[in-house]
Amino acid sequence: MQKKAIILFSGGLDSTTCLAIAKAQDFQCYTLSFNYGQKHSVEVEHAKRLADFYGVAEHKILSLPIGDLAGSSLTDKKLAVADYNGSSDIPSTYVPARNTIFLSFALAWAEVLDAADIIIGANHVDYSGYPDCRPDYLQAFEQVAKLATKRGREGVIFTIHAPLLNMNKAEIIQQGLQLGVDYSKTISCYRADDKGRACGSCDSCVFRKKGFKEANTEDPTVYA
Amino acid sequence: MQKKAIILFSGGLDSTTCLAIAKAQDFQCYTLSFNYGQKHSVEVEHAKRLADFYGVAEHKILSLPIGDLAGSSLTDKKLAVADYNGSSDIPSTYVPARNTIFLSFALAWAEVLDAADIIIGANHVDYSGYPDCRPDYLQAFEQVAKLATKRGREGVIFTIHAPLLNMNKAEIIQQGLQLGVDYSKTISCYRADDKGRACGSCDSCVFRKKGFKEANTEDPTVYA
What value of ipTM does the predicted structure carry? Predict the structure, then answer.
């Protein structure tokens, strides 16, 4: 019998690669997307289309009131998303506790579905320095998953898979291309317009652009 | 300067006692309630009135799509909340990953407010055996809080306070009465009607009723 996996799925380059990897590993895939007040909520439409394309077992879109807590330029209309500036500081697009919130819902769904595998596109090479994309964090969440749940207490081992964790963006793209991912259908930009066109200059665009260049492959992104 | 604390606040006996303790400890109190599809959502009205009464710095009510994931008789209209049956099994009212979801939002809000203290009314004496009310779970979440956040990475120690953890219900009530809590304003029943009247026979009612009896004090609960 196929094992079920919950995939945190934004419709971006990383999470779409994760979905392709999960399919190749013969997981039965349950994709989970969030409307959380992100300015680039057009990503959820991309996620829906990609989930359909990949024929996932179920795609769920949940609305979360993260924007009500404020604190991030990704959700707060009063704060602008900055251009990439090469700094190693955690940028204004950091959303407090976002991955913990996302993983908590994935864990709840996993428990309901009798799944023990959760897949997240976290990456700590070509990334913005977000604390909740690092290996020690993901390990700590696994421990929470074990102790928080009825099934964990009964001995089920929940695994947080982060298959992209140690890859750079070019390696992620190469892996995805080998698996047939059509990156023109994915979206990464923090300032994407409502037609899904990318700005080309936010952190996310800069890492993505650099990835295609270093992978020596054409960048299929549509820029505004 | 007063330290800020986020208090997970349902308007129930336990969390109201936590709020009274936090006030007595001179925390500046930020209360957080959730509409999560619980059948007894009348508790949120009680929480609002109690937060007003205690003059908290801010009371936030967030709506969460936990019910969309199903799996609990507390949120699923097709499943009945059972009467207390004395079993040591985790009951049908268990909501998968609920405290992890709640604590994740508390953590996000704490980070936005520059708070480092989160208070939860978890208790593992007179309780239903929920896995996410146990000390090892709360410790694991503290580790997640440290590693998930920008401020945690900068050295801030987030503390999950569970002041009721090792008290029985009678001790909780005695502590609250010493602090002047008016328990007639609190609500604990999983099957409370829309006027806030308790059923008297669900797990939550049974533990509460037993608590007042063992505390040798009048039970001010209004039963249907």
Answer: 0.95
Query: Which residue in chain A is spatially nearest to B130 when comparing CA positions?
Result: A150
Any domain includes A221:
no
Number of domains chain B contains:
1
Per-residue pLDDT tens for A29-69? Answer: 999 999 999 988 999 999 999 999 999 999 999 999 998 88
Q: Which of A123, A109, A216 is nearest to A163 (CA)?
A: A123
Task: Give the DSSP H/E element, type plus range, for residue B24.
Answer: helix B13-24
Number of A–B residue contacts, CB under 8 Å: 136
pTM of the full structure: 0.96
Which domain, by its residues, includes B194? 4-214
Residue B221 resides in a domain: no
Is B131 an 8 Å CB contact of chain A? yes
For B126, left (φ over 0), alpha (ψ -120 to 50), or beta? beta
Residues 63-82 of B with CB under 8 A from A: 63-66, 68-71
pLDDT, tens digit (0-9, with 9 covering 90-100), for B11-65 = 999 999 999 999 999 999 999 999 999 988 999 999 999 999 999 999 999 999 9
* B7, B18 Cβ separation under 8 angstroms: yes
Q: Which residues contact A174 (CB under 8 A, 6 or more apart)?
A: A215, A217
Which CATH number covers residue A141? 3.40.50.620
In-domain check, residue B220: no
Q: Does the beta carbon of B37 lie under 8 angstroms from any beta carbon of chain A?
A: no
